[in-house]
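Minutes, project check-in
Item: structure for the 510-residue chain
Input as provided by the requester:
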Amino acid sequence: MSTFKRTIFSNLLNIHKSKKKRKTNHNNNTHKTLKNPPHKIPNPPEEPIEEGHFSLKSCVSSKTHLIQPLGNLLLLRNQSSNIRDPGLGNLRVLFDELVLDVLGLLEPKDLAFLSIASKSFYVFCSHDPLWRNLVLRDFNGEFVFRGSWRSTYGSAFDLEKSSFSGKLVIRDFYSDYLFQSWLCASLEMKQEWLETDNIQRRGRISVEEFVRDFEEPNRPVLLSGCLEDWPALEKWDREYLIRVSGDVRFAVGPVEMKLEDYFRYADYVKEERPLYLFDPRFTDKVPALGADYEALAYFREDLFAILGRERPDHKWVIIGPQGSGSSFHVDPNSTSAWNAVIRGLKKWVMFPPEVVPPGVFPSPDGAEVACPVSIMEWFMNFYGDCKRWKRRPVECVCKAGEVVFVPNGWWHLVVNLEDSIAITQNYVSRRNLLNVLDFLKKPNASELVSGTTDRVNLYDKFKGAIEASFPGTIDELTRKAHEKMELQKKPTFWESVADARVGGFKFSFE
């Protein structure tokens, strides 16, 4: 093996050991994905019906799947029946994740031709995330999705005439890593994951009530009956959005796509982490969409607005198929947020700032967050842990016409239960201004601040603009915050009388 190849293999092994794998972007933090131990993986269902409390999606058949979990191998008398190792040759000593990392270095034709070398290589080279990366890299968002990323790439060239011309019948291939990827893409959400609804729900409350009961104490709430005046609630279906957007391209993961192409992808996708349309410039690109809604009165005080065009990204249109969503994250720049559902259903799971969700591991400086590869994997392996916690998460299912308020600093996971369209905005009010300023002036602000090209100077710009536009506001808010802290430190009645002396006697309540 050449020195160059040894270096590649050594680096890949170090990446695997340190668990620094595929990255996904979620607002301000860099999120790293972590696979979970093999024993966490449930046995595969034999039919697309409920078995072992799990159900496959109606469009999925387990009989066509090529891979079985390692647990099934333990039930066999002949432990050598796994065809994985013989077909990999010298690569058999590598973990499955590392094999895929090596194959990810190959060009498409090399990957296609390697897939005919053996049944093992056929399985690994058919792993759809490999081809997803290639499509997104080479097609720049201009592709017609063909049901899988491998078929999508092959249909554009002559590759389908060789190794793309059909499926082999594979038996006796066992891999926890590859099986879990398929399983997470194929399972329905369990009903017990959707039953808890413990968020506070309110109808048409006043702004004063919202501030007093939710924004000031930093508590989430679901607001209903507030969007009837939004034209978007009636107009925003697939046909309307495609018509008004035309050939405009929207941000979808690392690429930009026309809505017509994205909706075609969303109709046929069956993968662990579906691409999510998440565009921060949608009102600039299609002004008609900006005219179809406006921020509710509860959220109209947005102090970042004084920065004009220099303010960080703050509003997004969000479109995604069933199973798409955002894994656990905290919203950028210590802002609060609201999320309004126009079409579909969204499952929310939220934890307060001081409670890190199970299976989530933020770095000490907050710059990176390690979490499971997919939302389904988190539910399979960690949702049950929440039942044993004293601090249970706040949960709900938000439907079309409802709005969720996400207070600053709260961890939250969101998954679409149906094809969904939503609008979300982040904002800064007087209630969280000091939190935002503290966040922006952190020593590692250049890593933490997001949505702007000038991360280092944002604190000075924002503070200066606030002092110029609202003189004395920062000082007043700081004084009130100190008074609140002192009040919280004030001893209770029982603490104050515990050491009181009456008539020369000291009363003790110990």
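Outcome recorded: DSSP finds 21 helices and 19 strands in the chain.
No further action items on this chain.
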